[in-house]
């Protein structure tokens, strides 16, 4: 680290070297450079700090140090800047066949890990030679010849290997096939990796099947267990897992009887499982092959085992969750793939593989399947701390949040109202006065609604205004009538209870606030319809977006939808009427939510974002629903047009009128990712334009 700022000639040289370093890009690791170039193992900033820390660390500049700095300046200037225009090529070599869920989990983790470096362009190739099931010398020889030909002129920058067979294949033939290419592996047991001398081009992540932890977990949840039935396949991998399991049994303090079901064909295995007596726990290790040479996928055989078994089953891999097993101390393949990909990113940025230590994860999380826990009547409080429970069915509250919240609110309001009326008889006069005032406000608001309805009726030739009048009258009239009815009922029942004014007063304040907001909406819309003019005021648009999204919270929870709200960059203040802009946003969001919740929607997610474009701010609401049919694009903004059952609320025609009254535009365009996108523009406030 630099402790003193250089000055004079030293400062000049420092600035020149610093400028050169900033123009250079990191050089990816390549063993082929060793002996020719300095192997970069750190970022440019760390290189600069190390360089100047060595030259200026003592604060004394000798002639020798000045000469060294000049030499380094010359060398740095002579090095070419790295400008990689092509994406990095990453080859993923799976041990399993392409159909196994394990490959999917590993691949998803690898994709997440590579995506953690958004500045990198990566092209991924995948090979799934199924080395787990096919252990044949001729097949391996054909793979070598095929890969040598395929990747002779199309060399990857990084190879990621998943599971033991792929790791051993690359350990033996990696230098032959991919000379000098760095390799990152995901190996199921650290003992395998530690038993071999790794080349300098190789590092990775190891994970261990937790036999002991899973057995202890099963025995703790089933304390009356007398025996453990162990299912394991034939072949080399079956024998390896058998040895590991036997070692695990030896380490148990209390060892139950062990029944080995080794390499049994499916019919014999299922028959043996069906005859297992009570107080037995099944431990599934792995079965790719039986002694007759038949091949299996772990999921298919395990589902059959669980179907015929009358005792619980435990396993070692989180990919088996969903087959009916209870759970266990499980290997999380997606997390390990993520860690391996992050190592790969470090290597692509310039770090040497041998400088990155192998990560050995010794402790696996406890993972359980919710339906299996329910089947075997295992309560959550019996599970170890930090347990993960998957496939849990949503509760009634999660399935119907809107209905339950509404019912609870009605009951709560009624309870509070009754209790307040019961305890507040001593303050009857004060309460009656508050009720009269509130009733007067409600009547005034309803009078405004009648006037608004009459105004909208004068525009009968404009069908969009008629639709808006009906929608607004229906949406606002109903809560106003409910408010008035509650107030009248409260007035009738007052005088029969004890004193508790605070709760009733809070209720009246809420009723007053809702009535006031309904009246504001009525006045604003009526004024707009009458004059087609808006009161333009500086409006913080991002806050308005978040408020509109907040209004849709109950609707999104009810429908299981998510709204992403983004302000791209610095979004300035706009000139607008906040209430009318909210009406437009709520209508567009409601249409988008209904669209993504249909049968044809691919994803229940709505995105609303705003960004500044020249002197305007553009707001877009997009979804991944079915979109607008091509034959309806030209008519969606016509009055009373509806592309869906039940209409479109206040209507896109009214939304367009509001935006145009603000001096902006509202239009539709297809979402590039699929679905629909509605956008509108608003003018930037004058002080933001000047800034």
Number of domains: 5
Overall spatial form = globular
- Using only C-alpha atoms, the radius of gyration works out to 35 Å
Class by SSE composition: alpha/beta
Helix content estimate: 40-55%
CATH fold name of the largest domain = Heat Shock Protein 90
Which parts are unreliable, with pLDDT below 50 for 5 consecutive residues or more? 1-14, 16-27, 32-50, 55-59, 76-82
Assembly classification: single chain
CATH superfamily of the largest domain: Histidine kinase-like ATPase, C-terminal domain
CATH architecture of the largest domain: 2-Layer Sandwich
- How far apart the termini lie comes to 40 Å
Mean pLDDT: 78
What profile does the largest beta sheet have?
A: 6 strands, parallel
> Per DSSP, what share of the residues sits in E-state strands of 2 or more residues?
15-25%
Largest sheet, spatial ordering of strands:
2-1-3-4-5-11
Number of strands: 20
Number of helices: 23
